[in-house]
Amino acid sequence: MKNLVLELTRIVQAVAMVESPEEQVKLIVDSISEYTSADVCSLYRMNDQLEMHLLASHGLDMPGKVVIPAGKGLVGRVAQTKHTINLGDAASHPDFYYVQGSQEELYKSFCGVPLVRNGKVIGALVVQSALAEPFNPESEAMLLTLASQLAFIVSNLPSSTSHSEKNLRASGIRGAPGVGIGRVILCDSDELAQVADTSCEDIEGTIAIWRNLLLEVGSEIDSERKALGDELSDSVAAIFDAYQMLLADRSFTNMVEKEIRAGHWLPGALRLTVHYFAGLFRAMEDPYLRARHEDIQHLGNKLYRAWRGGSAEHSSFTEPVVLIAPQVSVSAIASVPPELLAGVISFEGSSLSHTAVLANAMGVPAVMGVGEIKGIHSGGLVIVDGNEAHIIFNPTKVVAAEYRRILRREKKLVAKLDQLRDLPAITRDEHRVQLLTNTGLLADITPGLNSGAEGVGLYRTEIPFMVRDSFPTEEEQVQVYRKVAEAYLGKPVYMRTLDIGGDKQLPYFPITNEENPALGWRGVRFTLDNIQLLMTQVRAMIRAFIDHDQLHILLPMVSSTFEVDTFIQLLDDACLQLQEEGLEVIRPKIGVMIEVPAAITQLHFWHKKIDFVSIGSNDLSQYLLSLDRNNSRVAPRYDHVHPAVLHEIKRVVNTAKRYNLPLSVCGEMASDPVAVVLLLGMGVRKLSMSAAKLPQIKWLIRSLSMAEAEALLKRVMKVDNVERIRQKVNKEFDRLELREVIH
Ligand code: PEP
Ligand code: MG
């Protein structure tokens, strides 16, 4: 018997090397049958009707045809009992179920293990052998261990890979929210990688062509940037700057020339250079930097297309389209009129890709990292569901009609909610609530105002820091913050000091080698250790708001009095410096985020030193529940209406009331209807959320009475689990007939 761990590693690695799901599952069943000396190894997947479909088999030549009815046979029993069944004589078991034509009668023994994902059975792995004895313990252990790895692969397999298959689904990572339907345009984004090599006849002539090409593509990028319109935010414009910077990068351009001089024709020299630089970035540890390899590949292909002639990626469009590619380039997005771009799907990439950043800023639904999907072809219809991070290719008429209905309903709803824009968020019994917006990209400023935001409740300054290549200077920050101040003239703006670390990394200052980044050097801990950055930022904020009495500075991740005191000292120094420089300084209000549990208990120590508090429910829930907010494995357990979170938030609200400390909530909780009712019941009167969610929350507040919210909260505070809490509130929504808008 071979070493189990080594064998497992070998199989998992081999599976990772093959791309198509059919090949993956076939490789798995072949390897397992070899390892266990089984005559048959079969992999089953359970469908919604609880039937078991044979996905792949070594030994039974019928995948795709064998379907075991729900609860039938030994395979059904494995799924039902959720444990291994290992028998020497399967046919004598009362649950044995013979599949016609399978020739299973040849095999005596049977060992089946369930495949489980997120606590639910999703399939089964079965081995059979002609020997009439149970499989040995090593084989059983291997099946059990492999099944846990397999469950992940099987759950990510598309339901079918056939071209004509309807409702071909795939899941990925959320790139940008929203739902879109359109015709597929497959962009072959890596033509350069396919070019063959050939020798260069005229080296000096080729180098001259290369230099011209750089100029030509430089102006093409400028035109694309213009095509996207003036309302582009600085952060999105920075993506185009990144391309221009690459074009001007001497190490990049020199390497192409070096390869030409070494005898390669221009496309060959370009391919080698792009391959080299993309590889450098791909190998980087920092996820933001790693994602930058896409920029290099996009640029390489753009140069290649320009050299080949016929540059435009797509020209004429008459109906909504969805762009699909291994990595949809920013140029491809720019080539489609924005009103016809229904969505973006990338086989690769992450939510940090520039593609996702741009899609978000343009309000185009995007799903990233779906993996390569066989069967998708240009011209087919596809649904992009950016909310749920999945796509449906070739939907049936019924499914497409359902999504069109959702789209129409959303449009109608938007129009209806739009009418509330200038009306106050006031409950039926006349309690006023202030609704603010969360922002960070300059592109988000107008949506906030358009949706009726009464100010900015959270400006995440790390976002303008993230889309750059170096720390912005004081003057550069003044320019960015001033745009916010001017847009929200006379309205409050809560600017948070730089909140990096944990899952938020700067490309030029990666914080690595931390075993526990969520508990590490982040937020105010980082900025107080880099006080020069904080001083520059605070000075820039005060300068940007010099004529406006509306600046509130918010400190992230505060957990000690030392941090509060040190910041106050720094703020006093900054005000003094600027006064000495001749400015008429208005001292901003200062507040702390309540997002580390330690802040809750200490709030009463700080109430005289600060002017307000803001509850960051995203991190607060993460730390109270010890559940990583970005870990998809524990995502179903993460919920901000968990009783532990609700009771702690109530404690914060009570403390703030006692000391007359203004309080707001600025995490995702503030835009979740279930949570909002409970927050209102506690006495929260200030909520900050993304612009897109604001109209719905305003509608909810205007449809409720505070008395109803308070009564509901009283009942909910006695409940000990999330499911019942959500049920109770949703029942109340039904009773109040609020389902039209909240679903
Ligand atoms: C929060 O933690 O709730 C919050 C608003 O901050 P961020 O999501 O930016 O960490
Ligand atoms: Mg936070």
Short structural description:
With 743 residues, the protein is an alpha/beta fold. The protein has 26 helices and 23 strands.
Please, how many domains? 3
Content-based structural category: alpha/beta
Shape: globular
- Helicity level, as a percent range? 40-55%
Please write the CATH class name of the largest domain.
Alpha Beta
Question: If classified by CATH, what would the architecture of the largest domain be?
Answer: Alpha-Beta Barrel
> CATH superfamily assignment of the largest domain?
Phosphoenolpyruvate-binding domains
What average pLDDT do the residues reach? 87
- How far apart, in Å, are the first and last alpha carbons? 55 Å
Main sheet overview: 9 strands, mixed
Overview of this protein structure:
The chain is an alpha/beta fold and 743 residues long. The chain folds into three domains: 4-164, Beta-Lactamase (2-Layer Sandwich); 170-397, PtsI, HPr-binding domain (Enzyme I, Chain A, domain 2), CATH 1.10.274; 419-742, TIM Barrel. The chain is 44% helix and 16% strand. Strands 15, 16, 17, 18, 19, 20, 21, 22 and 23 form a nine-stranded mixed beta sheet that branches. Strands 7-14-13-9-10-11-12-8 form an eight-stranded mixed beta sheet. α1 (4-17) packs antiparallel against α2 (21-36), α5 (203-227) runs antiparallel to α7 (250-261) and α16 packs parallel to α18 (531-544). The two termini are 55 Å apart. Phosphoenolpyruvate (PEP) binds at residues 458, 460, 499, 595, 616-619, 666-667.
